[in-house]
Specification:
Elements: E1 6-11, E2 31-32, E3 35-36, H1 38-47, E4 52-57, H2 64-68, E5 71-72, E6 75-81, H3 87-95, E7 103-108, E8 111-113, H4 117-127, E9 131-138, E10 146-149, E11 155-159, E12 168-178, H5 179-184, H6 193-203, E13 207-212, E14 216-218, H7 222-231
Parallel strand pairs: 1-4, 1-7, 4-6, 9-13
Antiparallel strand pairs: 2-3, 5-6, 7-12, 8-14, 9-12, 10-11, 10-12
Helix pairs in contact: 3-6
Length: 237
């Protein structure tokens, strides 16, 4: 397995919960600390030497290229447009033709986890698995996908949303996927990464977790969008 230097960013969600504060642009373009939220993810990729990022766009996605252009620092930017909503896994499959390497980082475009992408790559290569998901221990896991892992960090259970508000491991929204995972997603239909693809990998014992201690924020609700303003306090482009 070679070092991963490409990323797919899921930036096509409808953002219905956020529309009371951001209704005129895609959710990842919501203003945070004076600039589009997605630029913090792009900064993270630049920091760790990534070369290309493909933005998977849907709702109001035509706005994004005019703002970001075709380069961001050292990153080449490409855009994959959905004509109809394809879900999180469907969007990755739709953009798979733009991925050149054998593995790719996939990131949720509405959350940020301040982790070391090089160490994620190392953990993935150590497990030699088709897919690795970064996970965080949280005191309240009710707003995120939750996981149960065994002693080898193999994921044995994945839930797209927990009904239990107690502590546990949550999905940090950054994955390392082998190309075979993308190719196995059925094309041209809506497919959920969290509800279909990841549980299927768990059933085949092919999903591993990489545990991190890192700062995490999402902008899925007006409250979390407000919290993000101070999370990135002092950040400038």
């Amino acid at each position: 397995m070679g070092i991963t230097r490409e990323a797919l960013i899921l930036a096509g969600g409808l953002g219905t919960r956020l529309r009371s504060v951001v209704s005129d642009r895609p959710k990842p373009m919501a203003p945070v600390a004076g600039r589009p939220f997605i630029t913090f993810l792009l900064d993270q990729l630049v920091c760790f030497g990534f070369q290309r990022a493909v933005l998977c766009l849907g709702h109001l996605g035509e706005q994004v290229p005019s703002v970001l252009g075709d380069r961001y620092g050292t990153l080449e930017l490409l855009y994959s447009f959905e004509q109809v909503p394809l879900g999180t896994a469907g969007a990755l499959r739709h953009a798979a033709g733009m991925v050149h390497g054998g593995s790719v980082i996939a990131m949720n475009g509405d959350s940020f986890c301040d982790l070391d992408l090089r160490r994620l790559d190392e953990a993935h290569r150590t497990h030699r698995a088709p897919a690795t998901v970064s996970v965080l221990q949280q005191s309240d896991r009710s707003r995120a996908g939750t996981l149960t892992v065994d002693s080898t960090d193999r994921v044995v259970r994945f839930e797209s949303r927990s009904l239990d508000p107690g502590p546990g491991l949550i999905n940090a929204g950054i994955y390392l996927l082998q190309r075979e995972v993308l190719d196995a997603i059925q094309p041209d239909r809506a497919v959920s990464l969290e509800e279909e693809t990841l549980p299927a990998l768990v059933a085949r014992r092919q999903l591993f977790a990489w545990r991190v201690e890192a700062r995490f924020i999402d902008i899925g609700t007006p409250e979390s969008h407000s919290a993000a303003q101070t999370f990135f306090d002092g950040a400038t482009k």
